[in-house]
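Is this the right way to post structure tokens for a design question? Let me know if I should format differently. Anyway, here goes:
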């Protein structure tokens, strides 16, 4: 018997509505940049695709938000470098509005009102480093050359699905042989690569340089987004991970999207819509619908069912397998692998609206010997990393369940690069903070959030004394906030740590690293798969390739 609501509209029970509704070729959970990339590739291959996003905007953690009138925050992710060139080209993202503005160098303020500035211009960087150490100025070029070759040895792996080393299938053996050939082509660097994959970032850079601020800033790339310290073995690989990007063909270049990080998400969404993808916001998925061991669609929080021949999860493995399906659908061994998957949150974010530029004391005399203005020094990133011991002490706090009292910070002033991010004469400041453990030894993040924000501002004010007086608005995001607002389990920005036991054919679980899962027709396309986190889009592209190959 048909049902009618108060307006007289004919209604159907959930099961009947699902039966009458369209069945898609693919439903994708989450409109993060990887989910949107996967959707675009599938639709371009003729598939009918719907993307479901629980928030009212697309992008996941790749978003621009206006929490204070006129000031636009890149709330979570804040720079671009790892975005794969082939994705930009294949999806024609510039046609859909993507424009990346280059950042010009990295400033490291030092405690004695001096600083280290690494410009993108190699000759300018050499001249700057010579102020501190002639040996380091000479070694820096060799160091960059080594990392260039190591990154080139590893970077092709970012564009291929991991082979299964235990399989004797011809297709798997060919892929494994291809990986060996790629590494073998850089035989002269194999020993260096082996060391880099196992060493700590601190040990690696200390073998090259003597200037403490330079050592610290370089090794800090090995702790970003991980619950590791600079002296923790394998943190050197995380450093290499961040060295593998490029911008307009320039190796190790970083940029800022015009309009903030939503510029990236909107470009992917535009490419997806142009290919015929349907994107639904405020559509929160409650459950993956599994029947007879096969994914058949999803159930939304409002009870609606969306049927699809394939389900693709763009959220992290923990959320996918521990919250969106019952444990009975997975065998105990796989459930145990997912339970052991390390996804510890360790990062926070503080975004500031500023009345004017911060006055860094280290720059007050810089123009007299460099010829560069203060603004020129601030148009790149600013690294609060005066020494490796400083970074290690920040990690010591996190090990025992406390946020770092004097944290490592990676800072950007986006309004200097794109003036549309703030009203005329005003500025926004983006502060990535390490460390902020998800699990606190005392209290909750609701109780500790303001104290965490105070620690960040107090530490930064040691280098820019006017900071507290020019803050108009402050947004503080703890790992708990990143989880609640953006769906990142424990606030982990990479959907899982980039440690050796969670890379390549072990990500996210041994035997399941090719975007398939133990549930038939259920795939993963997020950063919890190879090649990992960052605004990269490689997981989305590779997952789409796997899905389309399985359709043949």
């Amino acid at each position: 018997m048909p049902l009618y609501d108060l307006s007289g509209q004919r209604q159907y029970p959930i099961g009947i509505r699902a039966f009458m509704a369209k069945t898609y070729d693919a439903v994708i959970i989450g409109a993060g940049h990887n989910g949107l990339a996967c959707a675009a590739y599938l639709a371009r291959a003729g598939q009918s695709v719907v993307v479901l996003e629980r928030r009212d905007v697309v992008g996941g953690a790749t978003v621009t938000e206006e929490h204070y009138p006129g000031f636009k925050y890149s709330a979570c992710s804040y720079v671009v470098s790892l975005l794969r060139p082939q994705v930009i080209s294949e999806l024609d993202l510039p046609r859909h509005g993507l424009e990346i503005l280059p950042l010009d160098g990295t400033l490291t303020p030092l405690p004695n009102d001096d600083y280290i500035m690494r410009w993108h211009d190699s000759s300018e960087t050499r001249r700057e480093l010579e102020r501190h150490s002639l040996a380091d100025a000479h070694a820096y070029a060799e160091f960059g050359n080594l990392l260039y070759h190591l990154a080139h040895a590893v970077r092709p792996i970012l564009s291929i699905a991991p082979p299964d080393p235990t399989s004797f299938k011809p297709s798997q053996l060919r892929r494994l042989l291809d990986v060996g050939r790629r590494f073998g082509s850089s035989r002269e660097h194999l020993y260096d690569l082996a060391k880099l994959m196992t060493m700590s970032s601190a040990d690696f850079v200390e073998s090259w340089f003597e200037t403490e601020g330079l050592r610290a800033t370089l090794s800090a790339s090995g702790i970003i987004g991980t619950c590791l310290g600079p002296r923790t073995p394998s943190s050197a690989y995380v450093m290499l991970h961040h060295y593998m990007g490029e911008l307009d063909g320039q190796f190790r270049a970083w940029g800022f999207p015009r309009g903030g990080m939503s510029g990236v998400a909107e470009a992917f969404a535009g490419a997806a819509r142009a290919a015929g993808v349907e994107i639904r916001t405020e559509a929160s998925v409650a459950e993956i619908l599994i029947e007879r061991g096969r994914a058949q669609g999803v159930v939304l929080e409002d009870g609606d069912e969306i049927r699809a021949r394939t389900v693709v999860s763009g959220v992290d493995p923990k959320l996918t397998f521990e919250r969106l399906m019952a444990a009975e659908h997975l065998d105990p061994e796989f459930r145990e692998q997912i339970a052991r998957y390390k996804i510890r949150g360790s990062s926070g974010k503080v975004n500031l609206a500023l009345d004017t530029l911060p006055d860094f004391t280290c720059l007050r005399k810089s123009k007299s010997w460099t010829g560069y203005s203060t603004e020129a020094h601030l148009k790149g990133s600013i690294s609060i990393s005066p020494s490796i011991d400083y970074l290690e002490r920040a990690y010591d706090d996190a090990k025992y369940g406390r946020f770092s009292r004097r944290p490592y910070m990676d800072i950007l002033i986006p309004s200097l690069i794109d003036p549309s991010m703030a009203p005329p004469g005003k500025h926004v400041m983006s502060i990535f903070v390490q460390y902020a453990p998800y699990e606190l030894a005392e209290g909750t993040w609701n109780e500790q959030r303001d104290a965490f924000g105070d620690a960040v501002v107090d530490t930064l004010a040691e280098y820019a004394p006017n900071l507290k007086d020019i803050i108009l608005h402050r947004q503080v995001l703890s790992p708990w906030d990143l989880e609640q607002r953006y769906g990142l389990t424990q606030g982990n920005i990479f959907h899982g740590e980039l440690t050796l036991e969670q890379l390549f054919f072990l990500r996210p679980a041994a035997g399941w690293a090719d975007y398939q899962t133990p549930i038939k027709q259920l795939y993963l396309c997020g950063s919890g798969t190879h090649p990992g986190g960052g605004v990269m889009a490689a997981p989305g592209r590779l997952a789409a390739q796997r899905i389309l190959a399985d359709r043949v």
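Format looks fine. Someone answered above. Worth noting: The radius of gyration is 24 Å. Confidence is low (pLDDT under 50) at residues 1-20.
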